[in-house]
């Protein structure tokens, strides 16, 4: 985004933030997800600090409308947020650690969990 943005929401997981982003984008608002991890060197091995909030920002001109949309869809985020979040990313979201995984991979590279949430078979 080249325009000034403002944070309009904080979420516990990247998946929840991506669901909010998908809802806002479906309404024509250019939302961006911002992980609060300071740098890649600071990132934990599984991709996201458990205690770090994930923020969603929108252009300043869209703040009021975006907040209204998210307030109306709060129950939508509780039910089915995983499906909304996966529509917003290129690939799939690991059900164990919320890492975005390429569509061509069947196992999360971070935690070795399959798409259906099962541990990957041991490689021999």
Summarize the structure in words.
By secondary structure, the chain is an alpha+beta fold. The protein has a domain at 5-88: 2-Layer Sandwich (Alpha-Beta Plaits), CATH 3.30.70.1530. Helices cover 29% and strands 17% of the residues. The strands form two sheets. A three-stranded antiparallel sheet has the order 1-3-2, covered by helices on one side. Helix 1 packs across helix 4 (81-88). The chain is elongated.
List the keywords.
124 residues, alpha+beta, Alpha-Beta Plaits, 3-stranded antiparallel sheet, two-stranded antiparallel ribbon, 4 helices, 5 strands, 29% helix, elongated
What is this structure's SSE topology?
Blueprint: E1 5-11, H1 14-26, E2 32-35, E3 54-59, H2 63-72, H3 74-78, H4 81-88, E4 92-93, E5 100-101
Helix pairs in contact: 1-4
Order of helices and strands: EHEEHHHEE
| Helix coverage percent | 25-40%
What overall form do the CA principal axes indicate?
Answer: elongated
Q: Span between N and C termini?
A: 45 Å
Oligomer: single chain
Low-confidence stretches: 38-44
Number of strands: 5
């Amino acid at each position: 985004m080249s325009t000034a943005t403002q944070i309009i929401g904080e979420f516990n997981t990247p998946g929840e933030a991506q669901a909010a982003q998908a809802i806002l984008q479906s309404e024509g608002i250019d939302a961006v997800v911002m992980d609060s991890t300071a740098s890649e060197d600071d990132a934990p091995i599984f991709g996201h600090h458990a205690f770090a909030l994930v923020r969603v920002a929108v252009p300043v001109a869209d703040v009021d409308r975006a907040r209204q949309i998210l307030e109306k869809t709060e129950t939508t985020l509780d039910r089915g947020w995983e499906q909304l979040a996966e529509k917003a990313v290129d690939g799939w979201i690991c059900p164990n650690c919320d890492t975005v995984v390429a569509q061509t991979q069947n196992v999360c590279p971070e935690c070795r969990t399959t798409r259906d949430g099962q541990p990957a078979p041991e490689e021999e």
